Amino acid sequence: MTAIIKTPEEIEKMRVAGKLAAEVLTMIGPYVKKGVTTDELNTICHDYIVNEQKAVPAPLNYGHPPFPKSICTSVNHCICHGIPSDKKLKDGDIINIDVTVIKDGYHGDTSKMFVVGKPSILAERLIRVTQECLYKAIEQVKPGMRLGDIGHICQTHAEAHNYSIVREYCGHGIGASFHEEPQIVHYGKPGTGDVLEPGMCFTIEPMVNAGKRYSKVLPDQWTVVTKDRSLSAQWEHTLLVTETGVEVLTLREEEALERVISHN
Predict the structure, then answer these.
(1) Is position 98 annotated in a ligand binding site?
(2) Do the strands 201-204 and 224-226 form a parallel or antiparallel pair, or are they unpaired?
(3) Which positions make up the signal peptide (predicted)?
(4) Parallel, antiparallel, or unpaired for β 56-57 and 207-209?
(5) Burial label, 66 (beta-carbon count in 10 A; 0-12, 13-18, 19+)
(6) Is 93 annotated as a binding residue?
(7) What are phi and psi of 59, to 5 degrees?
(8) Nearest Cα to 78, choosing from 242, 236, 245, 230?
């Protein structure tokens, strides 16, 4: 296991970063409505992170080529890494907003699905099932669990609803680096893969398609879309493995999930 086990001091910093990331998603909610551009949402989030939180938006200039914006906005059939643009949101659109902040050198990473106006029944169901995949996996996280168990929980729940799991993109360890070991895939066999240990921090972020699982990357080298143009949804939390279970570092107040889940 090459995962970096966090010290108590590092865990405190991860809690702070996680709380800030959650607050960005809570803050941006009222702005997600018909007629707004994803670039306007990006500007609002950027200014809030930099000016209010005195933190750094991790996506900005990250990677090769450098990601040009401060958040990811993935609309409808975009799976992940959507680049904010001057395209206006319209009634019925679904959008994933993915936020990662750096505070005191540590990262908090989380994403949420938003709906513009009234969603289709298909979209509403896809969003709900994807969030259930995340929650069901989180609720089982504890020392001794294996990474394959996480993937298996997400995959079986999505496929039970005739949806598919994207396989090319995954969750990841997180801390002083945006992406650390291990990789957390959202499909797999129970009882396989690395064993979870207390002090590990990582994200679970299932990407679920209404159609087939296949994806393609657009020429901007970032935006990932479904090959069959079917809708896609994603939810993400940053987690800490505790001695007895899990702590959800990016939990928002509106969520019906315990922040600390103990299996003692």
Answers:
(1) yes
(2) unpaired
(3) none
(4) unpaired
(5) exposed
(6) no
(7) -65, -30
(8) 230
